[in-house]
Amino acid sequence: MRVIDANANRVGEGLRTLEETARFILDDAELQFHLKTLRHDIATAMTKVSRVDLLSARDTPGDVGTDATTSSENHRVDLGDLVAAAAIRVQQALRCLEEYGKLIDSDFASELERIRYRAYDCLARIELRCRRDLKRIDRLRNARLYALIDAGRSQSDLIQRIEELSRCGVEIIQLRDADIDDRTLYERACAGTRVARDRNVLWIINDRADIAAAADADGVHVGQEELPVAAVRSIVGPDRLIGLSTHNLDQVRGAVASAADYIGCGPTFPGKTKSFSEFPGCEFLKSVTSELKRPGTRSLPAFAIGGIRSDNVDQVAAAGFGRVAVTGAFAIDSPADVVADFHKQLNRVPLY
Ligand SMILES: Cc1ncc(COP(=O)(O)OP(=O)(O)O)c(N)n1
Ligand SMILES: Cc1nc(C(=O)O)sc1CCOP(=O)(O)O
Ligand SMILES: [Mg+2]
């Protein structure tokens, strides 16, 4: 009973620590829900053991193990380390409960075995999320303005463009150029990485996970017909951001379930950069806002894209979008006025 009591407490405390991480640090309602469900299912399984028997068996002053703390138990290097410690505690405690449970009731032990298998997946997910570069994700979450640019006539042309856009307040810049050879694209991507880092702007490569990884960019953006997100993740690693284009609600739901970090939603309006036969428009944006605000849905930053300019950005904001990705509207010498117009409308929309 003392083993069962100690391990039931351990697993509950560990899960609560992880739940708070999902809730307050990752803002991940879905992960929080899974952890909470695990905690409740364990509490339900524990009703097979008399609580009075457990409490009566408890003997903290007589516990020979309370002094046996190692120095590493009082020190956590970072969030990943903290979450790993809690996850390992939960896993070990579940196994202990299961083994000692076999002495009490085989149904109880079997139930704990099922919970343990479910827990493995959840514990791996939260630890991987917390071992990622949270600074990058925080910057993404706080960003409202995203510019897509081509590689420029020369490297210095590209560098000047990145400097100009970042000076005006653009927070994310994507290198999107299908008209240059791989070597030039790679060299421009590397130059972009250096200047974007200096300017504290996120640097994303369109379509090419290989070049994003090789050039040490902050991330990659892919479309529905390109590599699936899981394959992109295997190339770019756990820390780089992955953006995914979406054009309907099914694709948005797919993105939420995937390892994507943000989505582009469009096309909203006709523009000169890319032609489309259909425009899901602001109705689509409104439905994305409702979908992403649904309780229990993973929060995923969404950028409206397609023909967005100073004179229509109010409609984007009215659809609940506080973030935009644009090419044409910023393709002028000094986009400072456009940035100001965008901010005026978009800042009215709280970011989620
Ligand atoms: C932020 C953002 N959103 C959407 C897109 C479009 O991506 P995709 O559909 O793959 O089309 P191409 O840009 O590759 O022509 C994007 N690039 N960025
Ligand atoms: C590249 C791209 N993708 C879109 C999508 O809807 O997926 S719209 C688009 C063009 C964005 O440029 P502009 O702001 O000039 O319209
Ligand atoms: Mg693409």
Automatic annotation (TrEMBL):
Its cofactor is Mg(2+). Keywords: Magnesium, Metal-binding, Thiamine biosynthesis, Transferase. InterPro entries: Aldolase_TIM (IPR013785), ThiamineP_synth_sf (IPR036206), ThiamineP_synth_TenI (IPR022998), ThiD2 (IPR041397), TMP_synthase (IPR034291), TMP_synthase_cyanobac_bac (IPR016229). It is an enzyme of class 2 (transferase). Mg(2+) binds at D207, E226. One of its GO terms (biological process) is thiamine diphosphate biosynthetic process. Its EC number is 2.5.1.3. Residues 145-329 form the Thiamine phosphate synthase/TenI domain. One of its GO terms (cellular component) is cytoplasm. Binds 1 Mg(2+) ion per subunit. Pathway: Cofactor biosynthesis; thiamine diphosphate biosynthesis; thiamine phosphate from 4-amino-2-methyl-5-diphosphomethylpyrimidine and 4-methyl-5-(2-phosphoethyl)-thiazole: step 1/1. This is Thiamine-phosphate synthase. It comes from Neorhodopirellula pilleata.
